[in-house]
Amino acid sequence: MSRRPLSVGIIANPASGRDVRRLTANAGLFSSTDKVWVIQRLLAAFGATGIERVLMPTDMTGMAAAVQKNSRSRQAREQHWPELEFLDLTLRQSVEDTRQAARWMAEREVALIAVLGGDGTHKAVAAEVGDIPLLTLSTGTNNAFPELREATSAGLAGGLYASGRVSGEIALRRNKRLLVREPSRGLCEVALVDVAVSPLAFIGARAISRASDLAEVFVTFAEPQSIGISALCGLWLPVTRQQPHGAWMRLASGSPEALLVPLAPGLLQGCGVLEAGYLQPGQPQSLCLGAGTLALDGEREIEFNPGDRPTVTLDAGGPLSIDVNAVLEHAARQRLLAIDRSHRQHPMNLQPEDTPGE
């Protein structure tokens, strides 16, 4: 029986980095061309670590077409990019495209999925793939769950794990999550980073970019360098990804204490802090408002009324992700990237024209 090729997936959200916060703040644009370059750096790293096949969905912005064209280039041959396989989706230009691609990759039993997007993209993929690990790459607006890092290093870490050279005990991190439940409506939704309670009655434009639109915040983790809603707790009551608890904060414009927070890139606003504390796992939290909307990972998704009783609960059942730093630190200690004379990239095997800068 023939051996199945060692495969990983890449999902790049064409719409990430292009939302309304480009108009309401000073957020930059992450173009399709930028994402193609990120994908190609991943392919080089995957090829160097023994990945044989990469699965990608098609899209309407030309990313997949550009990658496919460039896969026939001299650079791709010299870097031994993996074989590419594309899923020809029936495109809806919505989050369902991401979900459909993730389900396809799960059915193909890929070793991991590299995700290019923001918090919402990663949440959509995680909802479909069970315990397939995510290699997270930030290409969205307010990114907290995917860490900002160079794709080549991330690809090396992902490839070392997927090829079996670094064990899951070292490479994988189980993330926390927030469960939003409303029993009378049979509602159970997931957030990977934060849930914000807003007095706004309708979902509307989804994104929250004003302090006056926030009444309460729950977070799985909160880092001081974050941008967005989780930055509220990150600059007041920081919580790491590794700690078992989360944090919460209640806000009111008339509070005696206030905090200057970057709610979006280039958008700093003062938020009145009424009270804050740690969020313990497994303990459902009621909301401070009787009606309004709930924003999950930065976007309003749920409307609730006085007859509803939604709760927010922290638990440790979130997706697995690749701990890039841990993998590369292990690789350094074990010399996993050391090569001998037989390796094609050994300096003694390079021709003069192959030497960078010459």
TrEMBL record:
<dbReference type="InterPro" id="IPR002504">
    <property type="entry name" value="NADK"/>
</dbReference>
<dbReference type="GO" id="GO:0016301">
    <property type="term" value="F:kinase activity"/>
</dbReference>
<keyword id="KW-0418">Kinase</keyword>
<dbReference type="InterPro" id="IPR011391">
    <property type="entry name" value="AcoX_kinase"/>
</dbReference>
<dbReference type="InterPro" id="IPR039065">
    <property type="entry name" value="AcoX-like"/>
</dbReference>
<protein>
    <submittedName>
        <fullName>NAD(+)/NADH kinase</fullName>
    </submittedName>
</protein>
<dbReference type="Pfam" id="PF01513">
    <property type="entry name" value="NAD_kinase"/>
</dbReference>
<keyword id="KW-0963">Cytoplasm</keyword>
<keyword id="KW-0808">Transferase</keyword>
<dbReference type="InterPro" id="IPR017438">
    <property type="entry name" value="ATP-NAD_kinase_N"/>
</dbReference>
<dbReference type="InterPro" id="IPR016064">
    <property type="entry name" value="NAD/diacylglycerol_kinase_sf"/>
</dbReference>
